[in-house]
Structures are given as C-alpha cells and as structure tokens.
Specification:
Layout (H helix, E strand, L loop, with lengths): L1 E9 L16 H12 L4 E5 L8 E11 L7 H7 L4 E8 L12 E9 L13 E2 L6 H10 L2 E4 L14 E12 L1 H4 L15 E8 L6 H13 L5 H6 L19 E7 L1
Parallel strand pairs: 3-10, 5-6
Antiparallel strand pairs: 1-3, 1-4, 2-3, 5-9, 5-10, 7-8, 8-9
C-alpha cells in the first residue's frame, strides 16, 4: 500500500458531516470518489476529525491509503472534486501515521453576529443570535474553560468515548473581520458589508461530540442573562445534569481551523 497525507478545505453546507454514512452525502465520500476517478485499485481515506453536518473546515487533514501509487497533482485532484471541497496540499506519509490520534491539538473557530435580523446570505458561514449579550460575562466564562476539565455537560451523547475529560489550551472571544481571517480561501466568501463579527477561538487536545456548539450556546445563555456565571461554572467538572439546559448551537458558524501534529 501507498500512503499520503492531504490537507483539504471544505464548505460543509449541504453535507452530512465529514465521515461516510449510509445515507446523505459526506465529505469523505466525495474525496474517495474523486480519488478513484484518478487512480485504480483499492482506496481508503481517514480524517483527523468527523465534523458534524453543516460544519466547515479551513484545514482538515486526511490520510489516503492506495494500492496504486498516486501520481496526480493537487490541481488534478481539485478538477474532479466538487467546488465546495478543495485540496490544499498532498504528499506521501508513513503507513503508521494516524491523522486523528497523532494530533497534539485541534483549533476551531465559531463565528457569529449579534443583530436583531440578518439576511440568509449572511447566515451561510456566520450564525446570528438576536438576544442582547453581555460580552464581559461571556469572556469570563470562556476563560473558565481553559485547563483540564470534565466536559460531560458540554457535549452530545451518542459517541463512544472513554472519558469526557479534555484539556483546553485557548478559549477566547474577540471581534474579527472575516474577510481578513479567511483571505486566502477561495471557498469562504462573506458579504461585502460584513466587515466585523464575533469569534470564539478554542484549541484543545481533543473535543467531544458537538462540544464547541454546546460551549457557544452556554456562553450565549450567560450573555443573555438566562444563566448566571456561577451556574455556568458549576457545570464544569460536575456530574451530568439530568436535563440539558440549552439546545446545541447551529453548525453553520463552526470551522475546523487548524490541526497541529
């Protein structure tokens, strides 16, 4: 077998996540089909992250295992991929390389606006929450997430995990110009008048299912006064609450931003 490491970028809108599923189009399925159009023999792919339905990736790492040596270029690859998926880099790797377990950290960004109303165009890559928010309180709660904690109240059940303990290195709220942050991307285009939005930047040694979308919703709850800072703090390192206090936030504002090895 021949082994390759590909860095890809994708707009997850309309896809049922990265990982292959029996029903629904996925990023992994599109990648595998495109590779098989360019090379013969058996081909398998494995990603560094599953990413949920509707979630995007600025940099996602994929391992390709092929019975036949790959000779096609990145340009060739992109010509057979859907326009929503781009390959940024492609090179050989060791067979032992595991794009998921060999990571040292993963970084995600969640983009959102805080307006009373936004157009559908503005919502493709940026979520909107219309409740008036106390950003000072939200920033204090975001800082609480940093460190090693049990995040059992900040994830969705349904995945096989040995532990809900993770170490968060960075968790901060800021204002950004999305045109500048995503300036090198040919996929992610924002409305011309959207020159500022809010961003949650979070980096950790790993994430639980929908952990970031739970985190941002929890911060919104604090910001809107529906949850106190003390109540938010009490959910960390605590037993699983019987009833979830919020609905998970929309996936459209979430980006897998960078993976470190």
């Amino acid at each position: 077998m021949y082994y390759y490491k590909a860095t890809i970028q994708y707009d997850g809108t309309g896809y049922a996540g990265f990982q292959w599923q029996a029903t629904g189009a996925t990023i992994q399925d599109e990648l595998t089909k495109a590779i098989k159009r360019l090379v013969g023999g058996k081909v398998t792919t494995a990603g560094a992250s599953r990413t949920d339905s509707g979630v995007h990736a600025l940099e996602h790492v994929v391992k390709i295992s092929s019975e036949v040596a790959i000779t096609f270029s990145v340009t060739d690859f992109n010509q057979v991929l859907p326009a929503q998926i781009r390959c940024l880099d492609l090179g050989s790797c060791l067979g032992e390389f595991n794009p998921n377990t060999n990571t040292t950290s993963k970084e995600y960004r969640y983009l959102f606006t805080n307006k009373t109303h936004v157009s559908e165009e503005d919502r493709r890559f940026v979520t909107n929450t219309s409740h008036q928010l106390d950003f000072a309180a939200m920033k204090r709660c975001a800082a609480m997430m940093i460190g090693t904690h049990d995040f059992c109240n900040f994830y969705s059940m349904g995945s096989n995990v040995k532990t809900t303990i993770r170490e968060v290195y960075v968790c901060e709220l800021s204002n950004i110009n999305p045109h500048e942050v995503f300036s090198k991307s040919t996929i992610f285009k924002f409305p011309a008048d959207l020159t500022e939005c809010h961003q949650l930047k979070i980096e950790a040694n790993g994430f639980l299912k929908q952990m970031i979308r739970h985190t941002i919703r929890g911060l919104w709850m604090v910001g809107s006064g529906r949850l106190t800072e003390q109540e938010f703090a009490s959910l960390l390192d605590a037993p699983k609450v019987e009833k979830q206090l919020w609905k998970v936030a929309s996936p459209n504002g979430l980006f897998l931003y960078r993976i470190k090895y």
